[in-house]
Amino acid sequence: ALLSAWKGACGAAGSGKVVIPKGKYSLGVVDLLGPCKGAMHLQVEGTLVAPAKASQHRKNSWVTLRYLDRLTVSGGGAFDGQGEIAWQRESCGGGCKKALPVNLRFDFVTNSIVEDVTSIDSKQFHVNLLGSKNLTFQRFSVKAPGHSPNTDGIHIGRSEEINIIDSNIMTGDDCISIGRGSRQVRITNVRCGHGHGISIGSLGKYEKEEPVSGIYVKNCTIYDTDNGVRIKTWPALHGGSVSNIQFEDIVMQNVSNPIIIDQMYCPHNECNRKMPSKVKISDVIFKNIRGSSRTPTAVQLTCSSSVPCKNVELSNVNLQYTGSKGPAKSICTNVKPKIIGKLIPRGC
Ligand SMILES: *[C@@H]1O[C@H](CO)[C@@H](O)[C@H](O)[C@H]1NC(C)=O
Ligand SMILES: *[C@@H]1O[C@H](CO)[C@@H](O)[C@H](O)[C@H]1NC(C)=O
Ligand SMILES: *[C@@H]1O[C@H](CO)[C@@H](O)[C@H](O)[C@H]1NC(C)=O
User: Fold this and answer.
1) What are the chain's domains?
2) CA-CA to 285 of 20 to 30 Å: which in 45, 53, 170, 312?
3) What secondary structure does DSSP assign to 83-107, as a single string?
4) Quick one: which atom of ligand 2 is closest to the CA of 249?
């Protein structure tokens, strides 16, 4: 029913609209494809429910929106990926053979808005962006428990002019992850709960990754997470670059590693830790970052010994550690950050 309504609306002259009314509906794997004759509006008022088993998905996605210009997704409804079975049965550490389905893929979507919708319990990433430009998420919600593996809230790759504003993201993995080829990304007024915080990377695992630049994260609250704001790159493998990054006005509550650059990122020992990372990091500002750290090392900048980080600034950082494993400290390796105002805890 959804596919035939979509085809009709997409092929008709002028702008088209597809409404999913209030209620709960099972929805199989669908590709909502363009190009369409005009702007498209997908108004989701009800809750769409994915097949519970990953084997019922033909591929690594559930709902895919592709080749669309001037798309609006809205309506107050939800996409429920029913991930619980997949997380348990297929929780396979780094060794998953077949990628689990992503709730919502936006492939080559331009000049578009996603607002007032919720993604629940995705089997893998909740949202994945590829080749998209001028796409805004506002009042977008993500809900999944802390134990849901690899369920990044929004993953951005090879996309530019992406805005994420006034949103609430609670999930088991990265709140927002920013991968290769992401440019001009603005994240403001976002709350991130449990999971791994806001991450740039990981980068340097694959050959010829496009640069990441122009990432602005402002007025966000990050709570009960493993990391706060993080840049992570793999040692030993491939080159790349990360530049013009600003994290400003961020509140950390009960975060294990509130500020972290990790150029030794190597989960499941998939790399040679003895060789430094080849990814260049430059022009990074951490400004007005306050709150609490769950570990004594509140600031950890571990840069590469072969390409040390350049132009890193720590400005008015105040992170309190109250636990018994103290004293609290800031640690910097292969980087000499410019320190403006106070830096608490001291170090670097
Ligand atoms: C970006 O997309 C929005 C929403 O469709 C649109 O109003 C705006 O004009 C677009 N901006 C540019 C520069 O095309
Ligand atoms: C900062 O974000 C919070 C929501 O997390 C919002 O209530 C507040 O208005 C924002 N402040 C500014 C100055 O935008
Ligand atoms: C801190 O976060 C951890 C991990 O999410 C959580 O288990 C713990 O209850 C939180 N502590 C407080 C005081 O909220």
Assistant:
1) 2-344 (2.160.20.10)
2) 170
3) THHHHHHT--TT--SSPPPEEEEEE
4) 1
Ligand 1 within 6 A of 111 CB?
yes
Half-sphere exposure (Cβ direction) of 29: Cα atoms closer than 13 Å? 13
SS3 75: coil
DSSP state letters, 211-278: PEEEEEEEEEEEES-SEEEEEEE-SSS-EEEEEEEEEEEEEEEEESEEEEEETT--GGG-S-TTSPPE
Question: How far is the C-alpha of 265 from the C-alpha of 145, rounded, in Å?
Answer: 24
Which residue, 321, 324, 246, 335, is CA-closest to 283?
Answer: 246
pLDDT in tens, 89-111: 655 554 555 789 999 999 999 99
Whether the pTM exceeds 0.90: the reply is: yes
Give CA–CA dist 318/338, Å, rounded.
15
| Local structure of residue 9 (DSSP, 8 states) | H
Dist. CA 256 → ligand 3 center (Å): 10
DSSP label at 136? E
Class of residue 93 by CB neighbours under 10 A (exposed 0-12, middle 13-18, buried 19+): exposed
Contact (Cβ atoms closer than 8 angstroms) between residue 62 and residue 79:
yes
